[in-house]
Records
---
Amino acid sequence: MAILKVIEILGDSTKSWEDATAKAVKKASKSIKDIRSAFVQSQSVTVKDGKVKDYRVNLKITFLVK
């Protein structure tokens, strides 16, 4: 039987939501081993001077607990 844990993290990027997701997973994988999935819970942007400044994603990361 496997035991999995879920945590929430926030990723951001000046390029896109996809890039924000990829960056967040890459950063999380440096300290969390055996990541199994990432669920995008929500997406948002920050706006400055009427333009999108940053893309943000709230992720639920699921990983194996050993």
---
Amino acid sequence: MKIKTNSNEIKPGDTFIAIIGKNRDGHDYIEDAIKKGAAKIIAQYGEYNIETEYVEDTKVYLENYIKDNYGEKIKKLKLIGITGTNGKTTSCFFIYQMLNKLNIPCAYIGTIGFYLQDEIITLENTTPDILELYQLLIKCVDKQIKYVAMEVSSHALDIGRVNGLEFDYAVFTNLTIDHLDYHENMENYASCKQKLFFMLKKDGIAIINNDDKKSDLMKVHHHNITYGFNKSDYQVLTFKMNSDQTVFKFAYQDKKYEVKTSILGKYNVSNLMTMIIVLNQEGIDLKNIVDKIPTLKAPPGRMDTVSYKNNTIIVDYAHTPDAVFNILNAVKEFSKGKIYSIIGCGGDRDKAKRNKMTHYSTCLSDLSILTSDNPRNEDAKSIINDMLTDIVKTNYKIVVDRKEAIKYGIDLLQENDILVILGKGHEDYQIIGDKKLYHNDKEYVLELCKRGD
């Protein structure tokens, strides 16, 4: 595509569209685009010294342009969109892995990047902006990919990043507190998630977690399939877990199936069920799916474990109250020693969840180490003060510097203890002020463990 919305990407001869967003106005970057060689400008206002086309709404213009020029091509793909507070990445990654294991070409778009065959591209957002997203989808078509499993965030649904797409499957995982700095309340947040289900094809399928309180809100399509521990079309009957295996049974159409996996956690049962249903609805035999589940791996930064002497260190992306609760609860199931957790909260983001995350980390750990995450333009100590609002338990230690906090946590480990480092998972950076500094929790853990040996 020679149309660009980012002036930094302009090459001589390109057309620059000045999109007006919530935080930035593309018109402020028109002169920069012209300096870089833009041959044409699409704008809503202003006077410029090159060819300019004025439109009422540049965003609508872009959406229509992409749909008119590339919509038919993208219809060759089967799109699987997954939305929810937690579980999007893991559910998508399971679908991506399993389809490819069955020699059915599938790509993945989401938090951990764009996965296409042997290529992995880092993405700025969970769901890329509409122009980048279409470029990725066109690349999938050109590479003869049949399926795309993609995370669809509430932000993307709200600002129209997936406008013009029609999904074959829309999946709802859950809705828990997050992003209230953006959505203001849970009603708005839920309404944004619901938009995905209005984007299903006529013959599309909605797959909905029946254990979630907002499940009924997502049942707007005529073809809904439910899953969960509650009464559902695909119902989980039993669940057991030890330190190296999860075993669960589910029923579908009066038949029962047993699943064994090294992927731990009750919450991952739900993530596996989304994959099972999508593939089964695509005509793949349930026994064939179940037999291959033991070969699946969790995505990077999700329950990522490192053995250290007789202890276990877990790095995980959990950054919402529900996710913190789920992973620490899972760890308690197989812990033989003490549990230490390291937790922080991002700056310039939802403040309502901060003390809730601390509540779960102190209640479910022997000691919770409070540290910085991505403080951005907030003071890290101020963020930690918010994390301690109304916290009754005193089993916490404040270590503001994240590296020092990780070192402190590792030094506490003695015999069969577990250290859970939460919040960043696969991320390889820490944002302090306006600077993006390199930092990777797992890499630093491995470095310290090597020194410790």
---
Amino acid sequence: MNAPRITVLMPAHNAARTIADAARSVLAQTWSDFELLVVDDASTDETTTILESLADPRLRVRRAAERLKLAGALNLGMREARGEFIARMDADDISHPTRLAKQLAFLEQHPDVGLCGTAIRTFGDGSSERLDYPRMPEQVRAFALFNCPFAHPTVMFRKTVFLKHSLFYDVSYYPTEDYELWERVLRIVRGANLPDVCLRYRRHAASMTGSDWPEMDRQAARIQARMLDRLGLPCDEPSASRHRAWAAGRIEPSIDALREAESWLRRIVETNRDARLFDPSALADVVSERWFTLAMRCAPAGESIRKCFAASPLSGRGIRRIRRIATLAASIVRRSRGATA
């Protein structure tokens, strides 16, 4: 039996409520040369029965005898995948029918790219939001210094590259195992994102518990500190935590806090001019976007924020800079009127 071009790798733990729709969205792809490998992570509900009822020869189920959790299940699946390419998929999301065809075509046309994600649209919590990710490889690498550059369940990658370099998920980085893996991957291969929305991403209350969010911040700070160290800006734990907060757009709305953030962002850009760890133009764009976000968060502090933003070289040039200053000024006015109403 010939190996399929693509293995769609789907871990599942007690996913009876959603797995049928998720699996059917894969089995209905316009590209048909694939296997759907489901790693049943010791489910105790009807997940196994539902998978058996689908009765499609392209569906292969590997049942774990004990709970592996997400990273462990994915590592098992990566080793057992038969495809040349591995496409991630979660048991509660929906892939668009042309997803595999589009990503495969892109990777075939760009042999220097090792992994490819896509834009997503959220559903399931009463709202629908389109989320885009950096597209070009230089933008992807620079963006990774501040946030995860891929929507995890959209990624397709070349299996041989990952196995050759032992690029597996590190379970000690829960719940940011994917972000940690991409940071290592992007040192070796180029990554990109398609502008197309190729996956509907389900949001629901059970996806993250309250205790997971602080741990996600802590682990993301570890990953970012590792990149900063490679850049030539080693930082202690408090500094890494501040970088993580600013990367996530969290800042005290004050002029002093904004100036502190500006000083750090300028230091990153200036250090990279010599280190060249990131493409300077791509990093400047990413930093400029972070700077604008932080200034908008500080808008309640008043007119001093607009002056600080406008005076900074991080604010960009041309029409984009003018539009950002105008947007910030309007936000300051609205907040001022609201405070005096």
---
Amino acid sequence: MRILFFLPLLAISLTSCNQAKVKELETKLSASEQQRTMLATQLESVQRTNGDLLDRMEDLSVISKEGATSIRESLQSISGQTSYIRDLNQSIQRKDSLNLALVMNLKRSLDDIEGNDIQVEVRGGKVHVSISDKMLFSSGSARVNESAERVLSNISTVLNDHRDLNVIVEGHTDNVPVKINGVRDNWELSTMRATAVVRKLTEEFYVDPARLSAAGRAEYDPRGNNDTAEGRALNRRTEIVITPNLDEFFDLAKNAGVNG
């Protein structure tokens, strides 16, 4: 009878124990499921973050590549411009040195010429030898005086020592209208006088004609005031303008355009 009494109690006890274990297992399973869900969410977040980082890294790589290319091109451009400026400065220095030497040679060769009828100066990067018309021509004439030949001979010697320089001979007048038979106006007179000097330089003093040009400026490039006798005397002149060979500068500009 006692055994039969304890059997129900044992069954009840075992049932309660199993239920507790099941409950515990269910709790652990639920917690594991929640942890798995949380880990899955975290993994998805990490993967998404990694994807964003990879995209950003790819963008940064492109930007860095483009930036590096841009910087490299800028540096090359700056280097090219610096080289161009350096070459140009060197060319200008050579030209200035040549002009200075040319002025000194001309002044030395003309030093024994009396009077103030010859001026040698540098204007606008060119050497100007200004000779008054009273030294070169008789009034109203376009024929070079014999007394002026020594002046032109001395100038020609210097020109022939610098054969790479070009020369423009300019005739200038005052603003008084000409009254010479066969001469229409000051344009024509100034051109005739410039041409007469060019012929003298080439035919008698052997300056290469390919280097020479003749130009008539009439009264439109005055050096003095045409309202005064002194000013008009300054304006009646012939200028021998010695210009540097600009091929070097044109080459530099062309190369700079190509490199730019």
